[in-house]
Q: What sequence folds into this?
């Protein structure tokens, strides 16, 4: 009986997981990064020309626009506390990981030497 229940649970989980992955274009409300962002400046501080002008995050990719040229790469996410601000989220892409620090749901800073600030579009 226990083996049957375990097998049924595993099969159910696999079916539900595969169904969920087919809807990857639907935004994940628990992921604060999903959506479009534009570079913004903090009060009295100019934005670096080396910051991406816009960033778009989907459930499976990130697209950054530098000097008018978009660059897209696969991405996965690791949020520390979804829905609680301030919070931190890590994006794992082909070039490593990037940390984003959110002060609110609509404002974040890319935690790099440039400290690029972004606001939700």
A:
């Amino acid at each position: 009986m226990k083996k049957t229940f375990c097998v049924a649970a595993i099969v159910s989980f696999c079916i539900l997981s595969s169904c969920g992955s087919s809807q990857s274009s639907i935004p994940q409300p628990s992921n604060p990064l999903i959506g479009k962002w534009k570079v913004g400046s903090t009060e009295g501080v100019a934005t670096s020309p080396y910051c991406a002008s816009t960033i778009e995050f989907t459930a499976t990719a990130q697209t950054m626009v530098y000097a008018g040229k978009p660059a897209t790469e696969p991405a996965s996410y690791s949020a520390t506390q979804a829905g609680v601000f301030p919070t931190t989220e890590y994006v794992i892409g082909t070039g490593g990981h990037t940390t984003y620090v959110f002060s609110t749901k609509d404002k974040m800073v890319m935690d790099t030497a440039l400290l690029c600030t972004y606001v939700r579009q």
